[in-house]
Fold each of these.
Amino acid sequence: MQEEPIDFESWELTNFNIDGHIVLSQKFGHLKMMRSDDGLLTLIEDAKHGLIDQEKDTPTNFFNRDTTLGFVLDIGIQKKKWLTHGNGFYFGTKMIDAQSNKKISQSNFDKDLFEKIGDLIQTYFQSGDKKKEIEAVKLQYLINEYNNARLLYPNFYGESYLSLMRIIDALGGTDSAHTYASDYSTFVATISPKLNQELYDKLKALAVYSERMEKASEVFTLVFSEAVKNKWSCHKTMSSFNDADKFVFSCFYSAYQYRNKFVHKGFPFPSVVKESYGVEEDSAIAYISPTLGMSWSRFNRPTTGLKEGDSMDIHEIVGNDAETFKKTYFLLVPTWYFLKEITRLGLINKINSL
């Protein structure tokens, strides 16, 4: 009986200092890790491992063998390029996305802003005034963080998103830890009233976003009521908000809830935050994803289709608050693009204020 030929696929990995070659566990499809003769760090795998049966009902897999391999080896594993598949056909398909498709030309370089930042940081750092020296260090580190967040996106969107949130944390810091979600969102809503209004008008013109506008109003009303009742420091600023400001407040309040319930418990932000459409046209859906829900599929059923219990909603991981997250915060969470725009404007406001 003739044995079925083994199909292989190989990948180029981001580089690290491998010593010789490593024979891996074949149980989950990994075969060998080695450096090729032309210097590429490669991972060879069984191309047929993990293929889903197209006729029989089969459970799907949540195990990420690549990141787990990285954990076991205590080194970062990332597939950089798909090299070969099957019987050796060369693909050369890049696996790491460019950080942006935005065209950059001379017109994008703001010489005045660049020199203003440089002069400001150098002057403050050499001023002899400890407060100004600290401001210089802080500002440069925030700019570094922004640059690194841009480099991380979209391949590590969760880390990039969190980095941008940390910049806003630093720009609008507060001493009231117990009201931080509302203080944070209040600060964001004051960064650019112009952007707030432009976005609000765009979304209001789209009938499919009407439910979200109502949800945002409900979120703001509940938080504002608590702020007034407990005399939180942010309640006076909140009382001056127009509808556009209230909407932006609710969006970033939702993002803060995800940071508390997801990120601080070891989970990433929902992947819809990286799904920005119409960025070039500055469309409303570039700021708030039109996606209505997210779930993980536990079974593949080619003939009967999904059955009850086959899907696991991502919000089940937050327990009792699952419905609130699914039906409210999820609809309002800002995209990475929205967060990036707000963060950049916040940094520019900080620069202009010094």
Amino acid sequence: MNHKIFYFLLCFIFLIWISSTPAAAAKFNIRTISDKIFIVDDPQSSENQLVIKSEKGLIIFNTFWSEITARKYKAEIAKNLNCDNFAYTINMVDRLDMFGGNAAYKETKIIGHDSFLAKYKGKEKEVEAEIRQLIDMWRWKEDISRKRLETQKKGSDDAINEERWMNTCKQRADELEDGFSLALPAIFYSDRMTLDLDDVTLKLIWFGKAGSYNGMTVVVVPEEKLAIIPSFILHPQHLAPYPYNEYTRLDVERWISILEQILEGENAVDRVICGMGDVWSKERAHTHLEYIRKLWDSIKTAEADGKDLTEV
């Protein structure tokens, strides 16, 4: 065989092999928010993991949709932070694709609002139904994204971002089908809970009922003047009341009270981590509090005028 051809084939085989190995995968990014708070980003997806490094160990917030993805992030966190002492896992939202990776952190103390227990313990049929609903939702989003991708210029930033989101939706649906295992929190709180981690304190606060979400938790870190708030709370669509049964169960006055405690007054935070990745100023987060207050005042005014929720 011609030596040049042989060399070419050898290089080609090597490139195929190396592209299929973990070492060739894009490296995770570590964003440093402070000397204790980090965000781990996977550049190949739109997901990230919030981590607090304390003297008592690492604290993880939410665990994605499956043990498969949770273990991938766990390995990256341990490697990049040079620490494998995982102490606590905080489940902030009672939705199965937000804590589906709990099994990866069984050695930690997993904490959640007590609604997790009422909603999921011994409710196999309900769990199966929610998983199916979530799979269908992510398949639908994957399909919508694929159709959008067809209209975008190949190789453009929009097309690249769209394809990344499409693949993320597919991954979530696939892993919910094949990699989901239910592991509920072992420690529960009902209204507020404080974790003393020696060098840092976490104040867990129940946010109240928000449509189909009953167990949403916000976390305040006083030493950092920082709050961690699920993206559902600061999203202009998710908290709007709708004339559907699940959206009539809303603790709006509690939402307003909790957000006022966090964003106003002498104890207000300076920054908010929205979801697990976006860092907002207090001022930006406050616009959402103003939105909720205005919306609620308008609803009360409309109801006082004799209109029901459907008309509103």
Amino acid sequence: MPEGYEWGLWSSSNRFLLPHSHVYRRDVSLQADTTYHFQTRNLLPLTSANPDPVMYLVRGNEIVAFNDDYTGLASEIIYTPPEDGTHKLVIRAYATATPGFCDVYQGIGGAAPSLLDSNVRFGGTYVRVRWKQGEWFETGPGTVGGSGGAAGDPYLFLIYPEHAAHSQIYWDDDGAGSLHSKIVPPTGGTGTVILGSYSRNSEGDCRLALVGQSYKAPWMSPAPWAQVHGEAPLTPTVTRYMEELERRKPALDELSPDERDQRVLELQRELLLEEEIRQQAPRLPAVSADLVRRQELFAEHYKELEMELEQMPYAERAAKLVHVKRDSMGREYSEPEGPLPGDDFRGTQSA
């Protein structure tokens, strides 16, 4: 079972808990009729798989530009907005087991890209989903003690129908209360939930539920309010930290990603015991030998095409590499497409 979009994430041994890891996001102000060039550089791994960032540029809830691979596994977006406005730059990992670090560069008006953010962490846990109108996605508490402490702060994304320009992306931080997230899609559909975290210092484990008409999808985690035996109560210090973090969110949201991460870490050191800070770290995803082999195959194909790719304009090169990636990684590691398991159990109302 591949690490991306896998239903084997829910095993009874970890009581339906999923890791939520940081998905980079930053607001950028863009001017009309000016060309912007965003790049990821200097990729560093977190697992034994190669780090593989995927980049989105979002206006409102519309993905206006998207890129997976441009220079090897590194992503680039070249985009000219038709009007002024604030956009959101989002970087996640291609699959759950390919997180890492990178530097983010930005070029404006044809100038060479310069450093925008350094040592950026990108990750996320990916779940292919199908839902009906009136249902919603919600995170709930993880465990206390051990890996993935209860003071983690999940940040939820929903992308549909596919990872491409003109698709929709929704996100939420604390819509379910007590640092938990909730997304109510405007229509039914098929897409991908990404479990991120508010900060790279607030990763952890949580539950994920699809709830609504008094039932929940059988492949999702239990509803957040479902009873789970053996869960320990929150300690007073962890409770105080969660309340204070929630109170500071409006001010933290105004900071750059790096400043926000630093302030969250400072708050943890101020209010939590060292042991409680260590407990927040999520489990790193396991990496299969098959994933590593397929990444090596993609690298070989890229090297064979490198001279040809250098002669292609941006859009043609990006489109070519989409096909190379799918041929190398196989359908099960590729972006969500086609029918999902459970068609005989759940009907779908298309978006």
Amino acid sequence: MSSQGLRVCPACGERLQHDWQRTVLIGGVIAVGIVVGVIVGPWLFRTVRDFRPEVVVSTVQAVVTRVPTAMLKVVDVPSLTPSLTPSITPTPTNTPTTTPTPSLTPTPTLTPTPTPTDTPTLTPTPTDTPTRAYPTWTATPKTTPTATPTPAPTAAPPIPLEPEDGAPFEGARAIVKLGWQSSHTLKPDECYLITLRWTEQGAPASNQVCEQNTSWFVPEALYLRADQETERVYFWTVQVVRQGTDSGGQTVYVPLGPASEEWSFYWK
């Protein structure tokens, strides 16, 4: 075989002829391919489009059922279960129910029953009865009480010194000393009246002591007498007084001046 580009045979020198049969054969193959594509193409497209697996499965199972039992023992044909596409159950549509319009029944009009009118009863007019007038007597006291004159204050109020106002103390053995100063010189029947007050079981309580000195120690017996709700607080004042007795023999104190400023302390 020589190349198609040669015109003369290199061996013998004769003129070469072209192989036209190859060209015709190639062109025929191409034409047949085009014709087959035009004819077979649409059919193959429809076949693929209309392919249904469930139909093929049903056909295969039908064929298998017709095969004799002896052949089934030789050939093991698997059973194919078609997968069916679930069908959609339509949802029922609620139809609105028309509500009947109630008919109005007219209410009968009640006829009022007349109420009988009571006949007024005549009341006799009372007759005035004369009343006897009695004189009014006003009691006159036999004697007019005479007020006892109160001596005018002559002493200045004492000044508290200790403990500091609001000072705290702890325990029953704490030494609570109240001290003050005064410019007044006491006479034999005069003293400093110390008034100590607190709240005990919700009620006010107090204690008074008369001293000639300018200090006083609070006794241990008063420890925890003040209520815990008040934080065990005690208040105290000092006042210059004159000591005496009344007609019943009881001791009385006549103030000679105003009381001092009230101070406090806590004894817990």
